[in-house]
Amino acid sequence: MTTVSGLEVGRPVEGVFAVRSKERRLTRRGDPFLSLTLADATGAVPAVVFDEPDFFATRFEAGDRVRVTGDVITRGGRPVVRVRHLRPARDEAAPEALLPRSHRDPDELFGFVLHLADEVGDPGLRATLGTLTGDDELAAAWRTVPCTRSGHHAYLGGLVEHTVGVAALCQTLCTWHPRLDADLLLAAALVHDIGYVRCWRLGATVEPTDEGRMLGHLTIGQDIVGAAAGRAGLAADRRRALLHAVALHHGPLPG
Fold first, then answer.
1. Where are the beta strands (DSSP E) in 9-137?
2. Strand, helix or coil at 64?
3. Burial of 112 (0-12, 13-18, 19+ CB in 10 A)
4. Burial call 157-188: b when 16+ CB within 10 Å, e when fewer
5. Which three-class secondary structure state does DSSP give residue 179?
6. What is the band of 254 on the pLDDT scale with cuts at 50, 70, 90?
7. Over the stretch 5-39, which tens digit does the pLDDT of each residue have?
8. What's the CA gap between 254 and 130, in Å, rounded?
9. Are residues 74 and 108 in contact, defined by beta-carbon separation less than 8 angstroms?
């Protein structure tokens, strides 16, 4: 079975892929064709359907799994899969099998999150972190979802991997600059992107949830962290400082 990473120009293609995007276009002569993005756990590649595009267009939608046969051509200076035949393949591959994933064990990475949370000395901040990590549903999503859809850490387990990386850097920074509020900085590093747990819907592709698309991970993160801080009894000034870090970690608000 062909994978995206194994594609070679001039070679045949046969494999199961997720359809990340689907668009009907016209050639320069005005003939219709389908422009697709096909993906699996090893990467993504553009694809085209020139033969009977309107027939094939009725057989699948973006986000579906499809079995493709065809070959690899060069188009616009880059490799493109020319699809000869395509059919639905919902029963031939589990959706998550077509998503890229971290090379590191998410459970092991979450263990580092728990360890770093225990390094926070402030009782209120530590209790807030414990409330978050002790929420089984939240923790499962934290270990699973990507950090972004197509940017950094855009793979299963990406969020927890990014969380550990940022928190470890902040912990090291505090040893160099002892005047920093180490407890607040470490706690903020651990939760700064936690809003992503409600931003993504995972299937054969990663799609934004309505909440993620409309509110974004900063607003969602404030909601999650604020609720946990309330349950943990975090003092108002510390709660405000922690939420400030979540809300503004991408920079000051405009205006």
1. 12-26, 32-40, 43-49, 65-75, 78-88
2. coil
3. middle
4. bbbbbbbbebbeebbeebeeeeeeebbbbbbb
5. coil
6. low
7. 999 999 999 999 999 999 999 999 999 999 999 99
8. 33
9. no
